[in-house]
Fold each of these.
Amino acid sequence: MRRITIAAMGAVVALGLAACSGSGAGSTDDSTGAAADPADLTVGVAMPTQTSERWIADGDAVEKGLKDAGYKVDLQFAGDDIPTQQQQIDQMITKGADLLIIASIDGTALATQLQAAADANIPVIAYDRLIRDSENVDFYVTFDNYKVGVQQATSLLVGLGVLNADGSKGDAAGPFNVELFAGSLDDNNAHFFYQGAMDTLQEYIDAGTLVVKSGQTDIEQVATLRWLQETAQKRMEDLLTSTYSDGSKVQGVLSPYDGLSRGIITALQNAGYGPTLAQGLPVVTGQDAEIASVKLINDDVQFSTIFKDTRKLAEQAVVSAQSFLAGEEPEANDTETYDNGVKVVPSFLLKSDIVYKDNIQSLLIDSGYWTEDQVASGQA
Ligand code: BGC
Protein backbone atom coordinates (compact mmCIF):
# COMPACT_ATOMS: atom_id res chain seq x y z
CA MET A 1 0.00 0.00 0.00
CA ARG A 2 2.81 2.33 0.89
CA ARG A 3 4.24 2.03 -2.60
CA ILE A 4 0.93 2.44 -4.39
CA THR A 5 0.34 5.63 -2.47
CA ILE A 6 3.72 6.95 -3.44
CA ALA A 7 3.28 6.01 -7.08
CA ALA A 8 -0.07 7.78 -7.16
CA MET A 9 1.24 10.90 -5.53
CA GLY A 10 3.29 12.44 -8.29
CA ALA A 11 2.46 15.89 -6.97
CA VAL A 12 3.82 15.09 -3.54
CA VAL A 13 6.91 13.57 -5.11
CA ALA A 14 7.33 16.81 -7.06
CA LEU A 15 7.24 18.69 -3.78
CA GLY A 16 10.32 16.78 -2.92
CA LEU A 17 9.09 14.29 -0.36
CA ALA A 18 11.04 11.58 -2.07
CA ALA A 19 13.31 13.81 -4.01
CA CYS A 20 16.70 12.59 -3.05
CA SER A 21 18.00 9.76 -5.16
CA GLY A 22 17.64 6.37 -3.62
CA SER A 23 14.84 7.09 -1.24
CA GLY A 24 12.01 5.41 -3.02
CA ALA A 25 12.07 8.07 -5.67
CA GLY A 26 13.01 5.08 -7.75
CA SER A 27 9.49 4.62 -8.94
CA THR A 28 9.09 8.06 -10.39
CA ASP A 29 11.08 10.86 -11.85
CA ASP A 30 11.41 13.48 -9.12
CA SER A 31 10.09 16.43 -11.09
CA THR A 32 7.52 14.97 -13.44
CA GLY A 33 6.18 11.89 -11.75
CA ALA A 34 7.12 9.91 -14.86
CA ALA A 35 8.86 6.55 -14.55
CA ALA A 36 12.55 7.04 -13.78
CA ASP A 37 15.30 5.97 -16.14
CA PRO A 38 16.64 2.56 -14.96
CA ALA A 39 20.15 3.94 -15.42
CA ASP A 40 19.45 6.30 -12.50
CA LEU A 41 18.37 3.46 -10.21
CA THR A 42 20.47 1.15 -8.07
CA VAL A 43 19.40 -2.22 -6.75
CA GLY A 44 21.18 -3.61 -3.68
CA VAL A 45 21.49 -7.39 -3.80
CA ALA A 46 22.47 -9.12 -0.54
CA MET A 47 23.42 -12.80 -0.79
CA PRO A 48 24.36 -15.01 2.20
CA THR A 49 27.56 -16.78 1.23
CA GLN A 50 29.91 -17.85 -1.51
CA THR A 51 30.69 -21.20 0.10
CA SER A 52 27.78 -22.83 -1.71
CA GLU A 53 27.75 -22.53 -5.46
CA ARG A 54 24.01 -21.94 -5.69
CA TRP A 55 24.29 -18.52 -4.03
CA ILE A 56 27.11 -17.49 -6.36
CA ALA A 57 24.94 -18.51 -9.31
CA ASP A 58 21.96 -16.65 -7.81
CA GLY A 59 24.00 -13.49 -7.23
CA ASP A 60 25.48 -13.55 -10.72
CA ALA A 61 22.14 -14.21 -12.39
CA VAL A 62 20.31 -11.47 -10.48
CA GLU A 63 23.10 -9.01 -11.20
CA LYS A 64 23.13 -9.86 -14.89
CA GLY A 65 19.33 -9.65 -15.21
CA LEU A 66 19.22 -6.26 -13.52
CA LYS A 67 22.12 -4.90 -15.57
CA ASP A 68 20.53 -6.16 -18.78
CA ALA A 69 17.41 -4.24 -17.77
CA GLY A 70 19.55 -1.12 -17.40
CA TYR A 71 19.84 -0.82 -13.59
CA LYS A 72 22.96 -0.30 -11.54
CA VAL A 73 23.66 -3.15 -9.11
CA ASP A 74 25.40 -3.33 -5.74
CA LEU A 75 25.94 -7.09 -5.14
CA GLN A 76 27.33 -8.25 -1.78
CA PHE A 77 28.02 -11.66 -0.22
CA ALA A 78 28.20 -11.86 3.57
CA GLY A 79 30.32 -14.96 4.24
CA ASP A 80 27.43 -16.43 6.28
CA ASP A 81 28.13 -13.83 8.97
CA ILE A 82 25.02 -12.09 10.31
CA PRO A 83 26.64 -8.75 11.38
CA THR A 84 28.35 -8.54 7.98
CA GLN A 85 25.04 -8.91 6.21
CA GLN A 86 23.39 -6.33 8.46
CA GLN A 87 26.23 -3.91 7.74
CA GLN A 88 26.08 -4.51 4.00
CA ILE A 89 22.37 -3.73 3.92
CA ASP A 90 22.85 -0.63 6.09
CA GLN A 91 25.43 0.57 3.60
CA MET A 92 23.22 -0.12 0.60
CA ILE A 93 20.56 2.06 2.19
CA THR A 94 23.01 4.84 3.06
CA LYS A 95 24.47 4.79 -0.42
CA GLY A 96 21.01 5.37 -1.86
CA ALA A 97 19.71 2.01 -3.08
CA ASP A 98 16.30 2.26 -4.72
CA LEU A 99 15.33 -1.35 -4.04
CA LEU A 100 16.75 -4.27 -2.07
CA ILE A 101 16.81 -7.97 -2.95
CA ILE A 102 17.86 -9.99 0.10
CA ALA A 103 18.62 -13.67 0.67
CA SER A 104 19.02 -13.61 4.43
CA ILE A 105 21.39 -15.64 6.59
CA ASP A 106 19.26 -15.47 9.72
CA GLY A 107 15.70 -14.64 8.64
CA THR A 108 14.93 -13.05 12.00
CA ALA A 109 17.94 -10.73 12.22
CA LEU A 110 17.12 -7.98 9.71
CA ALA A 111 14.17 -6.13 11.23
CA THR A 112 16.25 -3.01 11.99
CA GLN A 113 17.62 -2.85 8.45
CA LEU A 114 14.17 -3.35 6.97
CA GLN A 115 12.77 -0.58 9.13
CA ALA A 116 15.47 1.75 7.81
CA ALA A 117 14.59 0.69 4.27
CA ALA A 118 10.91 1.36 4.90
CA ASP A 119 11.69 4.77 6.39
CA ALA A 120 13.50 5.60 3.14
CA ASN A 121 10.66 4.14 1.02
CA ILE A 122 12.89 1.41 -0.37
CA PRO A 123 10.97 -1.71 -1.39
CA VAL A 124 12.38 -5.02 -0.12
CA ILE A 125 12.14 -8.33 -1.96
CA ALA A 126 13.00 -11.41 0.10
CA TYR A 127 14.92 -13.79 -2.15
CA ASP A 128 14.52 -17.56 -1.69
CA ARG A 129 14.43 -17.25 2.13
CA LEU A 130 11.63 -15.40 3.88
CA ILE A 131 12.61 -12.52 6.18
CA ARG A 132 10.63 -12.88 9.38
CA ASP A 133 9.29 -10.63 12.13
CA SER A 134 9.07 -7.49 10.01
CA GLU A 135 6.17 -5.80 8.27
CA ASN A 136 8.62 -4.24 5.85
CA VAL A 137 9.00 -7.22 3.52
CA ASP A 138 7.16 -6.20 0.38
CA PHE A 139 7.47 -9.34 -1.74
CA TYR A 140 8.92 -12.85 -1.70
CA VAL A 141 10.30 -14.83 -4.63
CA THR A 142 11.07 -18.47 -3.90
CA PHE A 143 10.34 -22.07 -4.76
CA ASP A 144 7.49 -24.10 -3.33
CA ASN A 145 9.55 -25.01 -0.27
CA TYR A 146 7.02 -27.42 1.25
CA LYS A 147 6.96 -29.28 -2.06
CA VAL A 148 10.77 -29.45 -2.05
CA GLY A 149 10.53 -31.35 1.26
CA VAL A 150 7.88 -33.67 -0.19
CA GLN A 151 10.19 -34.34 -3.14
CA GLN A 152 13.17 -35.05 -0.87
CA ALA A 153 11.17 -37.59 1.12
CA THR A 154 9.69 -39.08 -2.04
CA SER A 155 13.15 -39.63 -3.50
CA LEU A 156 14.21 -41.36 -0.27
CA LEU A 157 11.23 -43.71 -0.58
CA VAL A 158 12.04 -44.32 -4.25
CA GLY A 159 15.66 -45.06 -3.40
CA LEU A 160 14.58 -47.64 -0.85
CA GLY A 161 12.14 -49.18 -3.34
CA VAL A 162 9.09 -48.38 -1.19
CA LEU A 163 7.79 -46.22 -4.04
CA ASN A 164 8.45 -46.31 -7.76
CA ALA A 165 9.67 -43.14 -9.47
CA ASP A 166 6.17 -42.63 -10.93
CA GLY A 167 4.75 -42.50 -7.38
CA SER A 168 3.16 -45.97 -7.46
CA LYS A 169 3.79 -48.49 -4.68
CA GLY A 170 7.12 -50.29 -4.96
CA ASP A 171 7.99 -53.86 -4.03
CA ALA A 172 10.08 -53.17 -0.93
CA ALA A 173 8.39 -53.38 2.45
CA GLY A 174 11.27 -52.78 4.83
CA PRO A 175 11.73 -52.29 7.68
CA PHE A 176 14.50 -49.85 6.71
CA ASN A 177 16.70 -47.98 9.17
CA VAL A 178 16.77 -44.28 8.28
CA GLU A 179 18.16 -41.12 9.83
CA LEU A 180 16.90 -37.59 9.28
CA PHE A 181 18.69 -34.27 8.83
CA ALA A 182 17.27 -30.73 8.60
CA GLY A 183 18.77 -27.35 7.72
CA SER A 184 19.48 -24.27 9.82
CA LEU A 185 16.69 -23.41 12.26
CA ASP A 186 17.09 -19.67 11.60
CA ASP A 187 16.29 -20.29 7.93
CA ASN A 188 12.52 -20.32 7.45
CA ASN A 189 12.95 -22.70 4.51
CA ALA A 190 14.42 -25.40 6.71
CA HIS A 191 11.08 -25.70 8.51
CA PHE A 192 9.11 -25.94 5.27
CA PHE A 193 11.46 -28.57 3.84
CA TYR A 194 11.28 -30.68 6.99
CA GLN A 195 7.52 -30.35 7.34
CA GLY A 196 7.00 -31.43 3.73
CA ALA A 197 9.36 -34.35 4.23
CA MET A 198 7.86 -35.51 7.53
CA ASP A 199 4.28 -35.24 6.26
CA THR A 200 5.38 -37.64 3.52
CA LEU A 201 7.40 -40.05 5.68
CA GLN A 202 5.17 -40.23 8.76
CA GLU A 203 2.78 -42.89 7.46
CA TYR A 204 5.75 -45.16 6.66
CA ILE A 205 7.25 -44.55 10.09
CA ASP A 206 3.88 -45.30 11.69
CA ALA A 207 3.55 -48.49 9.65
CA GLY A 208 7.06 -49.64 10.66
CA THR A 209 8.34 -49.56 7.06
CA LEU A 210 10.84 -46.91 8.13
CA VAL A 211 12.58 -47.00 11.50
CA VAL A 212 14.39 -43.89 12.74
CA LYS A 213 16.69 -45.97 14.89
CA SER A 214 18.24 -43.01 16.76
CA GLY A 215 14.74 -41.84 17.71
CA GLN A 216 15.74 -38.34 16.62
CA THR A 217 12.79 -36.93 14.69
CA ASP A 218 12.22 -33.44 16.15
CA ILE A 219 13.57 -30.69 13.93
CA GLU A 220 15.56 -29.30 16.88
CA GLN A 221 17.37 -32.65 17.19
CA VAL A 222 18.16 -33.03 13.50
CA ALA A 223 18.86 -29.40 12.48
CA THR A 224 22.22 -28.23 11.11
CA LEU A 225 23.18 -24.70 12.10
CA ARG A 226 24.20 -22.58 9.07
CA TRP A 227 23.79 -25.62 6.81
CA LEU A 228 27.43 -26.61 7.47
CA GLN A 229 28.76 -29.75 5.78
CA GLU A 230 31.18 -30.56 8.61
CA THR A 231 28.40 -30.30 11.19
CA ALA A 232 26.34 -32.86 9.29
CA GLN A 233 29.36 -35.12 8.87
CA LYS A 234 30.02 -34.97 12.62
CA ARG A 235 26.39 -35.76 13.46
CA MET A 236 26.41 -38.73 11.07
CA GLU A 237 29.63 -40.00 12.67
CA ASP A 238 28.05 -39.64 16.11
CA LEU A 239 24.91 -41.47 14.98
CA LEU A 240 26.94 -44.36 13.61
CA THR A 241 28.73 -44.67 16.95
CA SER A 242 25.72 -44.19 19.20
CA THR A 243 23.12 -46.13 17.26
CA TYR A 244 24.72 -48.48 14.75
CA SER A 245 27.66 -50.01 16.59
CA ASP A 246 25.53 -53.10 17.32
CA GLY A 247 26.07 -54.39 13.76
CA SER A 248 22.86 -52.88 12.38
CA LYS A 249 23.04 -50.76 9.23
CA VAL A 250 21.54 -47.45 8.23
CA GLN A 251 19.83 -47.75 4.85
CA GLY A 252 18.56 -44.28 4.10
CA VAL A 253 19.32 -40.68 5.07
CA LEU A 254 17.03 -37.71 4.48
CA SER A 255 19.39 -34.84 3.71
CA PRO A 256 18.02 -31.41 2.78
CA TYR A 257 21.03 -29.94 0.96
CA ASP A 258 23.84 -31.33 -1.21
CA GLY A 259 26.61 -29.89 0.99
CA LEU A 260 25.19 -31.81 3.98
CA SER A 261 24.74 -34.89 1.80
CA ARG A 262 28.42 -34.93 0.93
CA GLY A 263 29.37 -34.65 4.62
CA ILE A 264 27.00 -37.50 5.47
CA ILE A 265 28.35 -39.67 2.62
CA THR A 266 31.94 -39.03 3.77
CA ALA A 267 31.04 -40.14 7.30
CA LEU A 268 29.37 -43.28 5.98
CA GLN A 269 32.23 -44.18 3.64
CA ASN A 270 34.81 -43.58 6.40
CA ALA A 271 32.84 -46.04 8.52
CA GLY A 272 33.08 -48.69 5.83
CA TYR A 273 29.82 -48.25 3.92
CA GLY A 274 29.87 -48.36 0.12
CA PRO A 275 31.68 -46.69 -1.54
CA THR A 276 28.71 -46.88 -3.97
CA LEU A 277 24.98 -47.55 -3.64
CA ALA A 278 25.42 -50.98 -5.20
CA GLN A 279 28.01 -51.76 -2.53
CA GLY A 280 25.75 -50.87 0.34
CA LEU A 281 26.00 -47.09 0.69
CA PRO A 282 22.64 -45.85 2.07
CA VAL A 283 20.23 -43.85 -0.07
CA VAL A 284 21.12 -40.19 0.58
CA THR A 285 18.95 -37.35 -0.77
CA GLY A 286 19.92 -33.70 -1.35
CA GLN A 287 19.02 -30.31 -2.76
CA ASP A 288 20.37 -27.72 -5.21
CA ALA A 289 21.90 -29.94 -7.91
CA GLU A 290 25.39 -28.74 -6.96
CA ILE A 291 27.88 -30.00 -9.50
CA ALA A 292 29.89 -32.07 -6.99
CA SER A 293 26.69 -33.89 -6.00
CA VAL A 294 25.45 -34.29 -9.56
CA LYS A 295 28.71 -36.08 -10.29
CA LEU A 296 28.17 -38.29 -7.21
CA ILE A 297 24.67 -39.13 -8.47
CA ASN A 298 26.07 -39.91 -11.90
CA ASP A 299 28.67 -42.15 -10.22
CA ASP A 300 26.03 -44.07 -8.14
CA VAL A 301 27.14 -42.57 -4.83
CA GLN A 302 24.50 -39.97 -3.85
CA PHE A 303 21.00 -41.11 -4.79
CA SER A 304 19.11 -37.90 -5.61
CA THR A 305 18.96 -34.14 -5.38
CA ILE A 306 16.35 -31.44 -5.99
CA PHE A 307 16.86 -29.11 -8.93
CA LYS A 308 15.75 -25.54 -8.28
CA ASP A 309 16.58 -23.54 -11.39
CA THR A 310 18.27 -20.47 -9.93
CA ARG A 311 18.16 -18.82 -13.36
CA LYS A 312 14.35 -18.77 -13.14
CA LEU A 313 14.37 -17.48 -9.57
CA ALA A 314 16.74 -14.68 -10.53
CA GLU A 315 14.55 -13.81 -13.51
CA GLN A 316 11.48 -13.65 -11.25
CA ALA A 317 13.33 -11.38 -8.82
CA VAL A 318 14.24 -9.04 -11.68
CA VAL A 319 10.67 -8.94 -13.01
CA SER A 320 9.36 -8.19 -9.51
CA ALA A 321 11.98 -5.47 -9.01
CA GLN A 322 11.02 -3.87 -12.29
CA SER A 323 7.39 -3.72 -11.18
CA PHE A 324 8.25 -1.98 -7.92
CA LEU A 325 10.60 0.42 -9.66
CA ALA A 326 7.86 1.30 -12.13
CA GLY A 327 5.59 2.11 -9.20
CA GLU A 328 3.51 -1.06 -9.56
CA GLU A 329 2.87 -4.13 -7.43
CA PRO A 330 4.58 -7.30 -8.69
CA GLU A 331 2.43 -10.25 -9.70
CA ALA A 332 2.08 -12.85 -6.93
CA ASN A 333 0.91 -16.46 -7.35
CA ASP A 334 0.58 -17.17 -3.62
CA THR A 335 -0.89 -14.83 -1.03
CA GLU A 336 -1.54 -17.36 1.74
CA THR A 337 1.44 -19.55 2.55
CA TYR A 338 4.20 -17.28 3.78
CA ASP A 339 3.28 -15.68 7.08
CA ASN A 340 6.46 -14.10 8.43
CA GLY A 341 5.12 -13.71 11.95
CA VAL A 342 3.79 -10.20 11.32
CA LYS A 343 2.02 -10.50 7.99
CA VAL A 344 1.44 -12.80 5.04
CA VAL A 345 3.99 -11.78 2.42
CA PRO A 346 2.75 -11.90 -1.20
CA SER A 347 4.90 -14.45 -2.98
CA PHE A 348 5.82 -15.88 -6.33
CA LEU A 349 6.61 -19.60 -6.03
CA LEU A 350 8.51 -21.62 -8.62
CA LYS A 351 8.54 -25.38 -9.16
CA SER A 352 11.37 -27.80 -8.44
CA ASP A 353 12.22 -31.26 -9.82
CA ILE A 354 13.72 -34.45 -8.37
CA VAL A 355 17.02 -35.40 -10.04
CA TYR A 356 17.94 -39.08 -10.30
CA LYS A 357 20.80 -40.54 -12.28
CA ASP A 358 18.54 -41.25 -15.25
CA ASN A 359 17.24 -37.70 -15.68
CA ILE A 360 20.49 -35.75 -15.23
CA GLN A 361 20.61 -35.47 -19.01
CA SER A 362 17.07 -34.17 -19.54
CA LEU A 363 16.84 -31.88 -16.50
CA LEU A 364 20.35 -30.51 -16.11
CA ILE A 365 22.31 -30.98 -19.32
CA ASP A 366 19.61 -30.39 -21.94
CA SER A 367 18.49 -27.24 -20.08
CA GLY A 368 22.06 -25.89 -20.15
CA TYR A 369 22.35 -25.80 -16.34
CA TRP A 370 25.45 -28.03 -16.41
CA THR A 371 27.45 -29.42 -19.31
CA GLU A 372 28.26 -33.07 -19.79
CA ASP A 373 31.92 -32.30 -19.04
CA GLN A 374 31.02 -30.57 -15.78
CA VAL A 375 28.93 -33.58 -14.70
CA ALA A 376 31.81 -35.89 -15.54
CA SER A 377 34.41 -33.82 -13.70
CA GLY A 378 32.27 -32.53 -10.83
CA GLN A 379 33.72 -29.05 -11.40
CA ALA A 380 31.75 -25.94 -12.31
C1 BGC B 1 17.86 -22.79 0.21
C2 BGC B 1 18.42 -24.09 -0.29
C3 BGC B 1 19.84 -24.27 0.17
C4 BGC B 1 20.00 -23.96 1.65
C5 BGC B 1 21.45 -23.94 2.05
C6 BGC B 1 18.02 -22.72 1.69
O1 BGC B 1 17.46 -21.56 2.18
O2 BGC B 1 16.50 -22.70 -0.16
O3 BGC B 1 18.36 -24.12 -1.71
O4 BGC B 1 20.22 -25.59 -0.03
O5 BGC B 1 19.41 -22.74 1.96
O6 BGC B 1 22.14 -22.95 1.37
Amino acid sequence: MADNGATYDPENIFAKILKGEIPCHKIYEDEDTFAFLDIMPRTDGHALVITKEPARDLFAISPGALAKVMAVVQTLAPKIKEASARRVLIQQFNGAAAGQTVFHLHVHIVPRKAGVPMRPEAAKMADPEELKATAEKIKAVLEG
Ligand code: 5GP
Protein backbone atom coordinates (compact mmCIF):
# COMPACT_ATOMS: atom_id res chain seq x y z
CA MET A 1 0.00 0.00 0.00
CA ALA A 2 1.20 3.51 -0.79
CA ASP A 3 2.16 5.62 2.22
CA ASN A 4 -0.03 8.72 2.09
CA GLY A 5 1.03 9.57 5.63
CA ALA A 6 -2.47 10.00 7.00
CA THR A 7 -5.33 7.61 6.52
CA TYR A 8 -5.81 4.21 8.08
CA ASP A 9 -6.58 1.43 5.61
CA PRO A 10 -8.96 -1.01 7.36
CA GLU A 11 -7.90 -3.67 4.85
CA ASN A 12 -4.19 -3.60 5.74
CA ILE A 13 -2.56 -6.96 6.47
CA PHE A 14 -2.54 -6.57 10.25
CA ALA A 15 -6.18 -5.42 10.28
CA LYS A 16 -6.97 -8.61 8.39
CA ILE A 17 -4.99 -10.67 10.91
CA LEU A 18 -6.98 -9.00 13.73
CA LYS A 19 -10.23 -9.85 11.97
CA GLY A 20 -9.08 -13.44 11.54
CA GLU A 21 -9.13 -13.14 7.75
CA ILE A 22 -5.42 -13.98 7.42
CA PRO A 23 -3.79 -16.69 9.54
CA CYS A 24 -0.90 -15.98 11.88
CA HIS A 25 1.04 -17.66 14.67
CA LYS A 26 -0.52 -15.89 17.63
CA ILE A 27 1.36 -15.81 20.92
CA TYR A 28 -0.73 -13.42 23.02
CA GLU A 29 -4.02 -11.51 23.00
CA ASP A 30 -5.94 -9.28 25.39
CA GLU A 31 -8.69 -6.70 25.05
CA ASP A 32 -6.40 -4.05 23.57
CA THR A 33 -3.43 -5.83 22.01
CA PHE A 34 -2.48 -8.82 19.91
CA ALA A 35 0.93 -10.44 19.38
CA PHE A 36 2.13 -12.91 16.76
CA LEU A 37 5.31 -14.07 15.06
CA ASP A 38 6.75 -12.12 12.15
CA ILE A 39 6.44 -14.14 8.94
CA MET A 40 9.95 -13.08 7.85
CA PRO A 41 11.81 -13.20 11.17
CA ARG A 42 15.05 -11.26 11.53
CA THR A 43 15.97 -13.75 14.28
CA ASP A 44 14.20 -16.79 15.74
CA GLY A 45 11.34 -15.65 17.94
CA HIS A 46 10.88 -12.29 16.15
CA ALA A 47 7.42 -11.17 17.29
CA LEU A 48 5.12 -8.23 16.60
CA VAL A 49 2.86 -6.60 19.15
CA ILE A 50 -0.02 -4.67 17.59
CA THR A 51 -2.78 -2.47 18.91
CA LYS A 52 -6.42 -3.27 18.33
CA GLU A 53 -7.01 0.43 17.76
CA PRO A 54 -7.25 1.34 14.06
CA ALA A 55 -4.07 3.43 14.21
CA ARG A 56 -1.46 3.57 11.48
CA ASP A 57 1.50 4.75 13.55
CA LEU A 58 2.92 6.38 16.68
CA PHE A 59 1.26 9.68 15.84
CA ALA A 60 -2.21 8.27 15.26
CA ILE A 61 -2.53 5.93 18.24
CA SER A 62 -4.09 7.18 21.48
CA PRO A 63 -1.66 7.48 24.42
CA GLY A 64 -3.68 4.90 26.36
CA ALA A 65 -3.54 2.29 23.60
CA LEU A 66 0.18 2.96 23.09
CA ALA A 67 0.84 2.45 26.79
CA LYS A 68 -0.97 -0.89 26.62
CA VAL A 69 1.09 -2.02 23.62
CA MET A 70 4.33 -1.09 25.37
CA ALA A 71 3.29 -2.82 28.60
CA VAL A 72 2.74 -6.02 26.60
CA VAL A 73 6.13 -5.58 24.88
CA GLN A 74 7.78 -5.22 28.30
CA THR A 75 6.09 -8.37 29.63
CA LEU A 76 6.44 -10.50 26.52
CA ALA A 77 9.99 -9.69 25.43
CA PRO A 78 11.90 -11.43 28.24
CA LYS A 79 9.63 -14.47 27.98
CA ILE A 80 10.64 -15.18 24.39
CA LYS A 81 13.32 -17.64 25.32
CA GLU A 82 15.00 -17.40 21.95
CA ALA A 83 16.40 -14.27 23.52
CA SER A 84 19.35 -14.95 25.76
CA ALA A 85 18.28 -13.43 29.05
CA ARG A 86 17.04 -9.93 28.21
CA ARG A 87 18.97 -9.25 24.99
CA VAL A 88 16.12 -7.97 22.91
CA LEU A 89 15.92 -5.34 20.17
CA ILE A 90 12.67 -3.33 20.19
CA GLN A 91 11.88 -1.55 16.91
CA GLN A 92 8.98 0.58 15.74
CA PHE A 93 8.81 2.31 12.34
CA ASN A 94 6.68 5.30 11.32
CA GLY A 95 6.11 6.03 7.64
CA ALA A 96 7.57 4.42 4.53
CA ALA A 97 10.60 6.70 4.64
CA ALA A 98 11.36 5.33 8.11
CA GLY A 99 10.98 1.72 6.98
CA GLN A 100 7.32 1.06 7.82
CA THR A 101 5.72 -1.35 5.36
CA VAL A 102 2.48 -2.26 7.15
CA PHE A 103 0.50 0.79 8.18
CA HIS A 104 -1.02 -0.47 11.41
CA LEU A 105 0.96 0.40 14.53
CA HIS A 106 3.22 -2.45 15.58
CA VAL A 107 6.28 -2.96 17.72
CA HIS A 108 8.94 -5.51 16.77
CA ILE A 109 10.46 -7.73 19.46
CA VAL A 110 13.67 -9.13 18.00
CA PRO A 111 15.54 -11.53 20.30
CA ARG A 112 19.32 -11.13 20.03
CA LYS A 113 22.21 -13.34 20.98
CA ALA A 114 25.83 -12.26 21.11
CA GLY A 115 27.56 -13.15 17.85
CA VAL A 116 24.37 -14.15 16.01
CA PRO A 117 23.61 -11.63 13.25
CA MET A 118 20.09 -10.65 12.24
CA ARG A 119 18.83 -11.93 8.90
CA PRO A 120 18.32 -9.24 6.27
CA GLU A 121 14.98 -7.42 6.38
CA ALA A 122 12.07 -9.04 4.51
CA ALA A 123 14.51 -11.58 3.12
CA LYS A 124 12.89 -14.95 3.60
CA MET A 125 9.56 -16.40 4.66
CA ALA A 126 9.99 -18.68 7.66
CA ASP A 127 9.03 -22.34 7.49
CA PRO A 128 5.44 -22.39 8.86
CA GLU A 129 6.23 -25.51 10.91
CA GLU A 130 9.15 -23.74 12.57
CA LEU A 131 6.98 -20.70 13.32
CA LYS A 132 4.32 -22.97 14.76
CA ALA A 133 6.85 -24.70 17.03
CA THR A 134 8.31 -21.37 18.16
CA ALA A 135 4.82 -19.97 18.90
CA GLU A 136 3.94 -23.08 20.92
CA LYS A 137 7.16 -22.74 22.94
CA ILE A 138 6.51 -19.06 23.71
CA LYS A 139 2.88 -19.73 24.66
CA ALA A 140 3.97 -22.53 26.99
CA VAL A 141 6.30 -20.11 28.80
CA LEU A 142 3.56 -17.44 28.98
CA GLU A 143 1.03 -19.92 30.33
CA GLY A 144 3.50 -21.59 32.70
P1 5GP B 1 7.50 -2.78 9.28
O1 5GP B 1 6.21 -2.18 8.75
O2 5GP B 1 7.76 -2.42 10.70
O3 5GP B 1 8.68 -2.50 8.41
O4 5GP B 1 7.39 -4.34 9.25
C1 5GP B 1 6.28 -5.10 8.99
C2 5GP B 1 6.64 -6.50 9.39
O5 5GP B 1 5.51 -7.32 9.15
C3 5GP B 1 7.80 -7.12 8.59
O6 5GP B 1 8.80 -7.52 9.51
C4 5GP B 1 7.17 -8.29 7.86
O7 5GP B 1 8.01 -9.41 7.80
C5 5GP B 1 5.92 -8.56 8.67
N1 5GP B 1 4.80 -9.08 7.89
C6 5GP B 1 4.38 -8.61 6.68
N2 5GP B 1 3.30 -9.31 6.28
C7 5GP B 1 3.04 -10.23 7.23
C8 5GP B 1 2.06 -11.24 7.37
O8 5GP B 1 1.18 -11.44 6.52
N3 5GP B 1 2.11 -12.00 8.49
C9 5GP B 1 3.06 -11.81 9.47
N4 5GP B 1 3.01 -12.62 10.54
N5 5GP B 1 4.00 -10.87 9.36
C10 5GP B 1 4.01 -10.09 8.26
